[in-house]
Amino acid sequence: MWIKKVHIVGFGQFNEQTFDFVQGLQIVQGLNEAGKTTLHQFLFDMLFGFPQAKGRKINTYEPLNKGPYGGSMQFEVDGQLYELERLGRTQTATTLTAVATGQQFADPEAMLTKLLGPVDRDLYLAIFSFDQAALMNIFSLKPDDFASYLRTLATPGAQNWLEVANRWEKTATAKFGSTKTAHRELNQALANLKTQRQQLQNKIRQQPSLDKLQAEAQHLSQRVTSLQQRQEQIQGQMSHQQAQVHLVPVYRRWQQIKQQVKATGKSLDLTVADKADRVRQQLAALDEVMVTTAVTKQQVESATVALRQLEKLEKQQQTLAEQQVKSVQAQNELLEKYHWTQIPPLLTEQQKARLGGQRETTQANSDYRWLIVAAIICVVVIIGALLAGHWMIGMLLAVLVLVISWWGSRRPEQTKTTLNGSQDLPAAYQQMSANDIFAVQADIQHINDMMSSNNQIIHDQQAMMPELVKVRAALNWLGEGLTVDEYRKRLADIHIKQETMGQQQLQRANLQQTLQDLYQELGVKDAAMLRQRRDAQRHINDLQREANVLEEQLKDADLHELAAQAVVKPDDQPEADEQQHILKRIQDEKNQLNQKLAEINVQLQNLQTDNTIEHQQQVVANQVAVVNQQLTQYFVDRLGSEWIRQALNAAIADRLPNLLTQAGVILSRLTDNHYQMIQQTKTLLKVVRDDGKILGVNQLSKGTAEQLYVALRLAFIKTVAAALQLPLLIDDAFVDFDNQRRQTMLNVLKDLASSEQQIFYFTAQKTPGEQVLELTHQQ
């Protein structure tokens, strides 16, 4: 069969996707989640039907886009091209069409079964499909499994004949049980026969004339039993010795490992070692972020004192400057108020006295003028009111005029008086009234006081300059021309660095002390020595695991005997020929005793004259007949079942050895001739190494065991290739193979595919080649 093309309508992540395949080795590669397993499952389900059940453990690959489920497949069988279509998962609509003629088969499943031959879903999974997990089946695989598959494929109707054989085997087993406590029909009949014979013997022994013969027969029976026991003992010893000889190398290796482990002394405490590594990593991480500064604590303290002095001096200077500004502002306001260009001097006492006399004369004249004006206005108002006939209004207006006149006479005279006659006053006072001159004297005195204070301020500022220069010089290492806040910030940063550095140094010292304590507890000096101890401990652990495996093989052995045999050379051990000679002598003596015992039994039977013995003998004979009849039917069923099995096995008598031979050739190629042959027992597979040593599957490495499984699968496919060719589906089964093993495996698959065997190899590995189908997430 050659699958040429599939079209996926909806299956998992694929939607309306078409894939064309080549005949031979078809490599399908893609990253995880690209759809390799989905495509693999689609090919398998198209051949054998979609899964009907649904649950957490069953992936039905429902379309992610919730669209239609299914698709179609074109495949070629014996030169005839067919197209198979399955749509729907639970109620699948299936059609099978011969492309060349357009014929659509009425029963597509029956026709598909005919095209697939004797291969059903389970047999296909067992032979033509496997993945990484299936490779582990090599540890439980038995040669009989392959024989069963070969019988099914090589002999038409073999499965029906096997069912008949199993039925006969079951019938025979129901009649007779092999255990002593079985109570089945034939077991009970034999037990009854034994009881009746025992009764017969008892009756014979009851004959007084038969005592001597009975005693001699008993003696002979005991001797035969003794010889039988001796024979079984020797045979057991021979079997035991043979088994012990195979275990001597295992015991020697086990003892060697134990001595090596013991010689290493105290094992490494991995918990403490891991803790030491973590502490060392913390030290390394701390060194990477370690804060350093060259500034000393004394420098910081001196700078702090200088900064306080600088702040104090600058505040003083700021205060003095503000006072200067206030003085200048007051002076400018006074100049602007009186339109002066400069502040005039204060008046002398004499000037104040003269200016005071002029102000009183002016005031008296002013009062007199107000009274005259008020009298005139009152007279005018009264006359006007009388003429108008409103004498009340006239009186009110007269009173109002008198009040206003009184208020005006009380108001200070603001009339400017020219003091040109006073030649001793400064020019700034010439255009001012006497009242203004007296009023401005307080402001001038205040300005003069402020100017005196400014002179003192200037003197104080000049006195502070040397100290200010000295303080700034002490702070220059922090930066020149900085403000107090900038100096304070830099000092704070340095202080934080110093504190951080101190904490880190303390933490580092603690970590170093802890690391040294851990090293001392582990008995090492440094990390390099600890790595050496770890490597040594890993080696000891490997030896211990090997010792555990060897100890498991020796669990049923006599260690004391193995210890004795381990120091004995092989030439010093007893020869098997001598034991065989002893067994032959015992057997000869047993034959002689059995013959003599048979003669005595004949004599005893001849001496029986009473009817009781005859009756008992008849009873025994009847029981023997019953047993013989049941035994006949038992052996008919048993032999019939065995005959069917032998006949079926004869049909594949040369195929299973041929399969193992071809598997050995493939394994030799896969392992570069390191393993050259595969042998079998009824239940075990073994391989022969290039040094001639025979190893069981459980003694192989995981990679070699997986190669053995692949070799058996490929050999089986080659064995049945003449009668049956179905596509081989391999889903990323070689992920544990190294590059060389994987390349060798690809070469073997290419050679197998070259003989018209189609192989699908799904892999996430980048694989060179021309017949590569690349799957991407976009698909």
From TrEMBL:
The chain crosses the membrane at residues 368-387. Keywords: Coiled coil, Membrane, Transmembrane, Transmembrane helix. Residues 1-203 form the YhaN AAA domain. Residues 183-237, 303-333, 501-610 form a coiled coil. InterPro entries: P-loop_NTPase (IPR027417), YhaN_AAA (IPR038734). Pfam families: AAA_27 (PF13514). PANTHER family: DOUBLE-STRAND BREAK REPAIR RAD50 ATPASE, PUTATIVE-RELATED. This is DNA double-strand break repair Rad50 ATPase. It comes from Weissella jogaejeotgali.
